[in-house]
Amino acid sequence: MKKSIAYYTLTTFGKDLNADFASVFKGRSCDEAEMTDANMSEVQGKLVYSCIGCGAHYDIYDFVYTCPECRSLLKIENLNFDRYRDIPPERWKEIFDSRKNTTLPELSGIFRFHELILPIVPLEDIIYLGEGQTPIVKANPELSDWAGAPFLVKNDGLNPSASFKDRGMASATSFLNHAIRARNLDDVLGICASTGDTSAAAALYLSYLPKAKVKAVVLLPKGKVTPAQLSQPLGSGAQVIEMPGVFDDCMRVVEELAQNYHVFLLNSKNPVRILGQKSYAYEVAQQLSWDTGDLVVVVPIGNAGNITAIMEGFIDLHELGIIRALPTILGVQSHHADPITRWRATGTYTPLKVSPSVAQAAMIGDPVSFPKVKKLVENHYNDLFHVVSVTETEIMEGMLTSNRHGHVVCTQGGESVAGLKKALEEGIVKKTSRFVLDSTSHQLKFALFQQMYFEDAFGPEYGIVTKDCLKSKPVSLDASAHTIAQYLGLKKKG
Ligand SMILES: *Cc1c(COP(=O)(O)O)cnc(C)c1O
Ligand SMILES: [Zn+2]
What we know:
Elements: H1 5-16, H2 19-24, E1 25-26, E2 42-43, E3 47-51, E4 57-59, E5 74-78, H3 81-84, H4 89-98, H5 114-117, E6 136-138, H6 141-147, E7 152-155, H7 165-182, E8 188-193, H8 197-206, E9 214-221, H9 227-235, E10 239-243, H10 247-260, E11 264-265, H11 271-277, H12 279-287, E12 295-300, H13 305-319, E13 328-334, H14 339-346, H15 370-381, E14 385-390, H16 392-403, H17 411-425, E15 434-439, H18 447-454, H19 481-488
Parallel strand pairs: 7-15, 8-9, 8-11, 9-10, 12-13, 12-15, 13-14
Antiparallel strand pairs: 1-2, 3-4, 3-5, 6-7
The structure holds pyridoxal-5'-phosphate and zinc ion.
The site of zinc ion has 8 residues, from loops.
């Protein structure tokens, strides 16, 4: 008989606290002989889509992505969230910490924080492909000196499809899987527009669902994703459609499809994606032993779904008293695609036409989630939100320098490092703060740009000035120990 502290805790709460509370956590009795980790307390959240414009609510099973009344973005609200406040912060920490040792795959990833993500989805419907719980790696002294302060990299490139997008796909496809069973759906078409990684993640997660019920289609801007990223949805068996234009053009098409046809949208405009992506914030807090004092979290911004989710995640923890203060959020953009930096600097938001960027996954001129960012900043983050723009050269130097010091960051991760360096130089953040940088995908996805740097193959539109000291290339030598020893200048033994 195995007892899980987590469920033990939740179920005892059902007894300790008022009847209202017991109805939220309908766990089995902890005396039950069958008590195992699988005794997931049936946390019965009451989730609705809530319009960020007019405040209207819609049924969670309605599959709407913008408010039918006023066309604003939707977020998902747990109308029973207040009942969570009856649980003392220390208990929450115990619950989440106890799950570190779970043997249940379903609770091993982002659903360690089940109550805060999708409490309406029971264990049996959760899709877990190995996402989440990504490592935090400390920058070594040389790299810290280069950037201007010690920092930590949370490497979301170590997710199954090699980017953070897997977090949101795990929540979106778990919800879809649940809806298919609970509402007896079939013939579902999962669809997304992508800068590359969303489609890789969507195709991977959808491929796990029953083929008879769900098909996957992804829309990509032709020639604007790396070969590695194109190979991913193809390998997962999705229908890939290439279109002329950039991501913003694909997004417009997919929005029209979602508005007028029966499809399940897998872009971060679908707030079910945001739920899963909040797990990044929960994990950062837990990995820092729930101490977010003096913390700055550095995040590259593209469509602004990730930064929205991270800000919301920290708010959840703060509202439950699990963390004592919200961290500072430092967004980073390429100066070739920086509408949010400009908004922060001038107070005016204007969509931009983007120029080519090596941080291609963030090369977006009109971020869909901007209205959410604006609200979060106005209502919660105020002085705790900054954005800096960096040049393409700075992004490449951030990536190459990090990877020469033990990291495997992508160009967007390089953007985070470059953004930290710049924010320190400009005095936007204090050297004495603690920094966690989001490396949003794996180095290998963007190997193409590394190679272009080494070969000086960038066109003038990038404005990249290369440094020889950051270039690497193989040398060809004869298969002879003597030749190689000579080349390396080795000293002979004895
Ligand atoms: C999607 C993506 C981003 C940008 O995230 P948004 O949620 O669009 O702001 C950054 N880096 C990588 C690797 C991505 O795939
Ligand atoms: Zn509305």
